[in-house]
Specification:
Layout lengths: L1 E7 L1 H5 L3 H11 L2 E8 L3 H7 L9 H8 L4 E8 L2 H9 L12 H5 L8 E3 L3 H11 L13 H4 L6
Antiparallel strand pairs: 1-3, 1-4, 2-3
Bound molecules: thymidine-5'-diphosphate (TYD).
The site of thymidine-5'-diphosphate (TYD) has 9 residues, from loops.
Length: 153
Amino acid sequence: MEKTLVLLKPSTIQRALIGEIISRFEKKGLRISGMKMMQLDDAILEQHYSHLLNKPFFPSLKASMKKTPVIAMCLEGVDAIAVVRYITGYTNGRKADAGTIRGDYCMSNQQNIVHASDSPEAAEAELKRFFKQEEIYDLGDLNMDRLYSVDEA
Ligand code: TYD
């Protein structure tokens, strides 16, 4: 089963959408095996967004990510990385499909509610960046018989 990193960005916290966004992931059937609130600093943001360091929007992206603490989550499920990206939607909320989190909850390319790992390599590196090993819990077979067929799980 795959694990992936989701960050509820300051736009979620500022707009009092924490419960609603967590609920979208829970209702989908993703299991939450780690969750914590944390204030990000320049060092972690420069690492996390290293592919964007030279972009003109990087300073405003960094500032927006420090506005409030974020909520980091480890979500798990079969094909969790792709599923979470799919339900998160396109980066720019104005262009994201209705029914996706960004499509339903934001109007922005930057204040876009959540971050989600975009590949298995990114998920592994990002989970290590945001969580200590002991902060990710083993949920055993919790709910597995309801979420998946025996062939899928
Ligand atoms: P990116 O990794 O391209 O997108 P995604 O979050 O969908 O994986 O970009 C990371 C974040 O950078 C994005 O969520 C918001 C911010 N960003 C901007 O502020 N302006 C932009 O034009 C782009 C492309 C991204």
